[in-house]
Amino acid sequence: MESSAKLTEWKRSGEASWRELRSMLEYKAAWYGRTLGAVDRWFPSSTLCSACGTLRERLPINARERGCACGAIHDRDVNAAQNVLAAGLAES
Ligand SMILES: [Zn+2]
Question: What is the structure's pLDDT at 1?
Fold first, then answer.
């Protein structure tokens, strides 16, 4: 198999896995009377300040912490999680 064909097959299997996970999450949410929310895959979760909403430049992947002009200091993952939660709640 050529490398581009392998890459295409890998992408398809990855997309199928995400669809299957999403389907299972929707099923479980409905089972428990909950609503499943999702944000756009390009939502800038790690570049938004969760305290003031300022959009900042991208961080290198190895940068784990960042300060903002508003004085907040964020852990990258905690900040992203707070932004995703707020965006998901705003959509529902
Ligand atoms: Zn800020």
Answer: 57
